[in-house]
Amino acid sequence: MNTTAEIRTLFQMLRGQIRSGSHAERLDAFYAPQAHSYDAFRERLLHGRNSLINMLKPDPGSHVVELGAGTGRNIEFFGDRIATFAQLDLVDVCKPLLEQARQRAARWPKVVNVVEADVERFRPAHAVDCVYLSYSLSMTANWKKTLNNAVRMLRPGGTLGVVDFYVSDAAPPPGQARHGWFARQFWPRWFAHDGVRLNPAHLTALADCTDTVYLDQRLAPVPWLPALRVPYYVYVGRKRRT
Ligand SMILES: C[S@@+](CC[C@H](N)C(=O)[O-])C[C@H]1O[C@@H](n2cnc3c(N)ncnc32)[C@H](O)[C@@H]1O
């Protein structure tokens, strides 16, 4: 990533999201100036995406959906497996990022389908095998609606995957990571500026609405903040059959 693009992206992130307009309009205004450099900058910010995709393991013939897919960068982590899927839908509301996703998807015209839609409401025609969200659950206007919608579109036994930033409660459930006072105060404020809402309730809700297959809570470096590590999680669950 060249220095000009890096500075433009940083400036946009420090300036944050505009406060007026619809959710989609705010996302368009935020991402339009950084759409071309989005992938390069996010390689160093959005950790664990490759791990999530490798944990999902959709069977050949699967219908897979990414909610809040942005530029579609994550589909490249599937590698040659993409060609074995029946369908892979990339859903987002942000036009400048969708344009990048369409260019990427052109490599797999028979499989990858780019959809402009709100992930709180998007519903495929039939139940699907695998749904995943990569750093988008924390960015939707109503994360509970988004999560309910993700689970509803899955077939029983289907796979839900989420990777996202978060912070723990002061007293998290047994077995879960506990973050210190500074992390619990600093990260939600830092990310809120860019429309990203960190919430310890995400993990509890994920375990409530699916059977947990995998959960890893990790810390990652952040570009331009060398002394700090941001908490994120990788979650994979299975939709219950009852
Ligand atoms: C941080 S980006 C992550 C993009 C991509 N999943 C990745 O891992 O690079 C969050 C994405 O969620 C999308 N998003 C936020 N709210 C949305 C909504 N209600 N409906 C559809 N997409 C949404 C944004 O437009 C953005 O592309």
What does this molecule look like?
- There is one protein chain.
- This protein has 242 residues and is of the alpha/beta class.
- It has one domain (3-238): Rossmann fold, CATH 3.40.50.150.
- The protein is built from eight helices and seven strands.
- It has helices at residues 3-15, 23-31, 38-42, 49-56, 95-105, 143-152, 181-192, 201-209; strands at 63-67, 87-92, 112-116, 128-134, 154-165, 211-222, 225-238.
- Helix 5 (95-105) links the parallel strand 2 (87-92) and strand 3 (112-116).
- Helix 6 (143-152) runs parallel beside helix 8.
- It is globular.
- The model has no long low-confidence stretch (mean pLDDT 93).
- S-adenosylmethionine binds at residues 23, 27, 42, 46, 49, 68-70, 73-74, 92-94, 97, 118-120, 134-136, 139-141.
List keywords for this structure.
8 helices, binds S-adenosylmethionine, alpha/beta, globular, 7-stranded mixed sheet, Rossmann fold
- At the fold tier of CATH, the topology name is Rossmann fold
End-to-end Cα distance: 48 Å
Order the strands across the largest sheet as they lie in space.
3-2-1-4-5-7-6
CATH superfamily: Vaccinia Virus protein VP39
What's the domain count?
1
Helix/strand/pairing class, anyone? alpha/beta
Structural topology:
Blueprint: H1 3-15, H2 23-31, H3 38-42, H4 49-56, E1 63-67, E2 87-92, H5 95-105, E3 112-116, E4 128-134, H6 143-152, E5 154-165, H7 181-192, H8 201-209, E6 211-222, E7 225-238
The structure holds S-adenosylmethionine.
